[in-house]
Amino acid sequence: MDGAVHEEMPRDALPDARLRTANRRLAWRSAIDRARLTATDERTFLQDACQSATALGGHQRAWVGLVMPEQGLVRTVAEAGVEPSRPAGSATAGIDFSVGEDAFRLRVEGEQGTTFDDDELVALREIAADLAAGIGSMRDRKAKAHVDAEFRRVFEQVAEVLFTLAVEPGPIYRFTSANPAFEVATGVPVQALIGKRIDEVIPEPSLSLVLSKYAEAIATQRIVSWREVTVYPKGRKVGDVTMRPVFAPDGTCTHLVGVVHDVTDMVAAEDELRRLNAELDGRIQERTRELEAAVKELEAFSYTVSHDLRAPLRAINGFSQALLSDHHEELDDEGRDLLERVRAGSQRMGSLIDDILGLSRVSRAPLRRERVDVSAMATEMLAELQQQEPHRVVAVRVEAGLVAAGDAALLRVLLQNLIDNAWKFTSKHPAATIEVGAKATPDGQAFFVRDDGAGFDPRYADKLFGAFERLHSRAEFPGNGIGLATVRRIAGRHGGKAWAEGEVQKGATFYFTLAQGAPE
Amino acid sequence: MSVTVTSVKPILLVEDDPDDERLCVRALKQSQLVNPVVVARDGQEALDYLFGSDDGSREPAERPHVILLDLKLPKVDGFEVLRRIRTDPRTETLPVVILTGSKEDRDIVKGYGLRANSYVVKPITFEEFIEVVQQLKLYWLVLNQSPPT
């Protein structure tokens, strides 16, 4: 309330006129007090103040403006009364006042001929002070309402269940508040809850747990947390509860403030996960049993093949031989030739049976991974072949330091098959080269055995690896067509694979990989 | 080292397959064997021969020089026969050669586990069969020093 402006006006000396003026001013101030209580916002309050200045205060016009220093102007906030014709001699008084950061200006204009003397200016300053106080309290109220609204918003919107309990002697715990989340979670209406005792809301067996936890929180004067499963009207609920005791200055516990985090869905999801895991476990066990049964059956089958299929072959072979030697004279050349063919056939079948059993053994034998020196193994095999057939001219190139992580016995079978093949399919060439090495492939390190022998039509590259598949006649190259099937199966058992590249009469390269360290 | 003269004690062939029996006997004959060959056609017969019948109606027969034992046999299988031979003091040192069609590793392991003296797979061709029988004869009837009885 500073910067009073005093415009010099002719003085009214009449005492009853002064009295009337004083009365009007009093009425005006009372109206301002009322407006302060009834007005909902600043502008309405100031508007009411201006209205009562003209209606009760005896002024022709009242106006309040907000000083806007940056724009260099005063913006009208409220005004009342008629625009004076402003003849010379009309009285105007202006008072500045401030609320917080804001500067306001009050201006009143009297009836024509009235003047503002010192008394009246003092009274106007009081009015300005009333306006400042009114605006201030209005602003405080608004700020408080805002904070309350925020608290209410949090209380009502938060996902967690919030509630308070009054602790009465006994102790009796009585609900004093609960947020809507409480009702959503439990199905117990908040209206019905307030004032109820805890034992009227929470059923056993949760109640005993809850009461003991409350007692613990009060006794230890600490926050206590626990997980609680309770059956509410809305169903079974699992909640993580945190309870804080609130104490009066004399040390008695007056309230408990509780927060419940609803973990029903989470716990259900965990249970479901556990159930699924158990189910999966059961299924795996079942599959394992099935697999074990299948392996047992396969073993029984192999055993039968091994033992029983060979017996009739021995009979066919042996008795053909008996016929040939005991009844030699009674048979002519053709008869003897036919019997020889019977014997050769039984012999071949015997070797086929051996090959099938060998292949099935590859699948059944347990796999033991160890460090295998492939270079040494290959060198040794090739040296042995050279020794058996010294007339063959074969240049051997084995890369040094080839090391594999695999089952030594199975890798020996694999490598022997590939090297035997290379040796066999270069046998028609006067000079040959056999190479053993390794190279990086998209499937990891691949070992290879390469020869420059008969090769094969690449269209049949995959057919090579089928059991009993042959791309050459037996007359051309001997064999049962089981070697590469064995190679592929051994690579597969190691988690790797086998493949081939080649061209007719341009040699062949056989690759295999062994997944490092992975179990079968 | 001393070499025994060819014993005339019998050879016990435990074999249920008549074809295999005939082939085996034929092979033994062709290898100039002088020992008589006694054939038991199932495991029980073999046990009866070695230990006499359970009801005591028959005494144990003459102790064989060597037993050629098939594994897959009716009534009592070859492994059980071998186990009984090895657990009876009268026969525990008797040479037993398993002669079978099975090439299964587990059978071989089990056979040696029960203290078989040899494990021989019956070959498919008769020539090999004769070869095998001849070697068996040479080893078990000529070279090998049998335990004193």
Key traits:
heterodimer, A: about 525 residues, alpha+beta, 5-stranded antiparallel sheet, disordered N terminus, B: about 150 residues, alpha/beta, 5-stranded parallel sheet, 5 helices, 5 strands
Can you give a write-up of this model?
The complex is a heterodimer of chains A (520) and B (149). By secondary structure, chain A is an alpha+beta fold. In chain A, 48% of the residues lie in helices and 25% in strands. Chain A has 12 helices and 17 strands. In chain A, strands 1-4-5-2-3 form a 5-stranded antiparallel β-sheet, with helices on one face. In chain A, strands 7-6-10-9-8 form a 5-stranded antiparallel β-sheet, sandwiched between helices. In chain A, a hairpin with a 5-residue loop joins strand 16 (498-502) and strand 17 (508-513). In chain A, helix 1 packs parallel to helix 3, helix 9 (333-364) packs parallel to helix 12 and helix 11 (408-425) packs antiparallel against helix 12 (483-493). The relative contact order of chain A is 0.05. Residues 1-10 of chain A have low confidence and may be disordered. With 149 residues, chain B is of the alpha/beta class. In chain B, 40% of the residues lie in helices and 14% in strands. Chain B contains 5 helices and 5 strands, in the order βαβαβαβαβα. Chain B has helices at 18-30, 43-51, 78-87, 105-113, 126-143, and strands spanning 11-14, 37-40, 66-69, 96-100, 118-121. Chain B has a 5-stranded parallel β-sheet with strand order 2-1-3-4-5, sandwiched between helices. In chain B, helix 1 packs across helix 5. The two termini of chain B are 19 Å apart. Residues 1-6 of chain B have low confidence and may be disordered. The interface between A and B is medium-sized, with 24 and 20 residues.
